[in-house]
Amino acid sequence: MAEGVDVCLSCFNGGCPSDPYNHAHQHSMKSGHYLTLNIRRSAKATSDSDERPAKLTKLEIREDTGAESFEYHTFVRCWGCSGARVESGLENIEPTVQAVIHAVEASKGHEIKAWAEEVTACQHFSDLSGQQPRDGFSLDGLHQCSTCDKRENLWLCLTCGNVGCGRRQYDGSGGNNHGISHYEATGHSVSVKLGTITPEGTADAYCYTCDDNKMDPHLAAHLKVFGINVAAQQKTEKSVAELQLDQNLKFDFSMTTADGAKLEPVAGPGLTGLKNLGNSCYMASVLQCVFGIDRFRDRYFPTAGDHFATCTQANPAQCMLCQLHKLANGLWSGRYATLESDGEGGVAHQAGIAPSTFKAAVAKDHYEFSTMRQQDAFEFLLHLAKQVDVVERSVDSGNSNPNKVFDFTTEERLQCMGCLKVRYKVQPARSVSLPVIKRPLDEGLAPVSLAECLELMTAEETIDGYQCPECEQPTQAVKSARFASFPKVLAVQVRRFELVNWVPEKLDIAVQVPLGEVSLEAYRGRGIQPGEEALAETDGAPAAQQPAVDEEVVAQLEAMGFPRVRCVKAVSGTGNCGAEAAMTWIFEHMDDPDIDAPETAGAEPPSDVNPEAVEQLAAMGFARDRVQRELRSAGGDAERALDRLLSIPDDMESMEPAEPVADDSMGGGSAFELTGFVSHKGSSVHCGHYIASVRHGSGADSQWYMFNDSKVVVQQAPQPEHAYVYFFTRVD
After folding, report:
1. Annotated active-site positions, please?
2. Each residue's pLDDT tens digit, 45-95
3. Are 656 and 230 in contact (CB under 8 A)?
4. Residue 199 pLDDT level (bands cut at 50, 70, 90)
5. How far apart (Å, rounded) are the C-alpha atoms in residues 556 and 562?
6. CA–CA distance from 295 to each of 35, 272, 310 (Å)?
7. Fewer CB within a 10 Å sphere, N or C end of the chain?
8. SS3 for 47-68, per residue?
């Protein structure tokens, strides 16, 4: 930006100082803060004689303001005087000016905080005693595992000097688990990784009892028992942190076609990349798909200027609506999408925009998304939708909420196998989670079709011990779910991750998804049919029966080891939104004092609720009586109440839950086309890389594009087979 950026000297809001937006002037007129500091920077010339960087001895992100790479030009201006320059060096403003100039950039501050991972000591290292080299120990034997022929990733037992290889990884790398096998056989819990020992007395250390990376405060003394002189050691292997960082950096989707030709870089409106802020590819990929939807673009892009001019929030950086409009403007104006030169007369990729303030606003106070760790893209999609719901409640009673494109209803059918009577219920939904079928081959897993996944999702499941109100005794029932109506945009998650010994493991199964039209008519519910007899509205279940929850999701969570009472509360509290949302709810409420207290049917809910919580939720546009009711049902927990308020739309409140769905009440056609998908590469949700593929246009004029963080390229042959989240748009 040639004109630089104006920073308000009263509240430090940043704004552009020139047309067509001139947000600096707009801010000063709204706030009465007239003095700003204009900061413009230019790159310093570099030469081969520049001092070489110091040798890397520690994996860290250093506090770097960029002062060494740029020259800064500043002056103070007064917008109350038509933007005139103010004399520099004024005593009353000079300290503030200097503080702004030397402040660490906000994004750099986030990175520093995120990478300050603390590794602490534990009592097992501090209290280590009885060190005795085992029979046959020699320094010459430290180069190989005592059990196999592995010569890398070796761990030295600090109790007896046994050398064992590390754990086997999912991709076959790593070791053969002989280090942990030694611990299981002997109980010797502390070890150090050979090859990571430095003369400074640091090394990777691990405690198997704590099952975590630890620090050995007495490393030199512990190694001296085995004749190892720390001062003479040299680091020859990467530490665990470096290996994890390498793994994330190496994940990159191919920028070439099958015949080796480079994909064509593009830039323009709707083709603006998002810089990776540090493991933020999960967010970038979801945002590219979501803002590629017409309803989201039309809600926030054309109205951005009007909102900036009328927003009453004192700090735009903390206003979620400001950030949504700002992001839409950045992605769709084309102003920030310019292809750069590669220095050889060719075209390089664009720089993209950094969504740092958007991330800070959308992830505020969230225990996972506020960090710089890799996250689950589908969980972020659910979180984003929730944040949009909250802010849109205060605008036009929520009528402009773009999330409505995702809204649809499901029809749940339950039949008692004793009396053969049925019950139908309509439930609101915003996404579907598709199971995949594991069919092992000689190498890998066999592919499945989208139709097979949908058939599995809508198939009947058996419920044992169902308390039938007609039979008045435990019986067996079958339950199934289908679409009662279809959304404008159907968000689909494929369950590519499963927990194996509490570790998320990815299922590398190709799902055959057509790029053309897909009909979901076969999965539409039909309501009560001729000859079917409805079950009584009130069932005779015992007092412990819970409100209607998705038993399949409850079973998934129980299989992970969570107690049933927590599973039921989580599924109910998230409005049957799937296992991922329910699992997130469990972790967020793990410290609740009543987390394991059963919600007994018929028990009196709290008669009084916190007036501040009522006012807070009512200010979002919810009816006060409904807010009070949900707060009582949630035991006064405002977060649980908000989850329920958002999961059940107002127009669903009046719907009789057991009312059969008639054909003429089913809205929307059933033909869809794939218009976007998020793909993941890596073995776990906690590592790897996400990209997005988005289709612009329709019919013969359509074109697919791939968004790999800031890189945007034409995608002639999209490959949705290994995607994690799909977006299907209804063909009207």
Report:
1. 281, 689
2. 765 544 444 433 333 333 444 556 678 888 999 999 988 998 766 777 888
3. no
4. confident
5. 9
6. 39, 18, 22
7. C
8. CCCCCCCCCCCCCCCCCCCCCC
The answer to whether the CB of 311 falls within 8 A of the CB of 303 is no
- Reading the block at residue 388, the tokens are 């949009």
Of all residues in the chain, what percent carry a pLDDT higher than 70?
Answer: 79
Note every long-range contact of 305-313, with CB atoms under 8 Å and residues 24 or more positions apart, other chains counting.
Answer: 305/21, 308/21, 308/23, 308/26, 309/26, 309/30
Reported in sequence order, the residue ranges of 335-453 that DSSP labels E, i.e. its strands, are 340-341, 347-348, 408-416, 422-429, 431-434, 448-449
Give the pLDDT of residue 243: 59
CA distance 182 to 157: 9
Question: Could you write out the DSSP letters of every residue in 567-585?
Answer: HHHHHHHTTS--HHHHHHH
Quote the tokens at residue 399.
């009528």
* Tokens matching residue 175: 């070791």
Q: Does the CA dihedral 658-659-664-666 come out positive or negative?
A: negative
Enter the tokens of residue 663: 């054909």
Residue 85 Cα distances to 38, 74, 77, angstroms: 10, 11, 4
DSSP 3-state of 231? helix
Report whether 579 contacts 553 (CB < 8 A).
yes
CA angle 518, 524, 528 (to 5 degrees): 170
Rounded CA-CA distance 729/725 in Å is 13
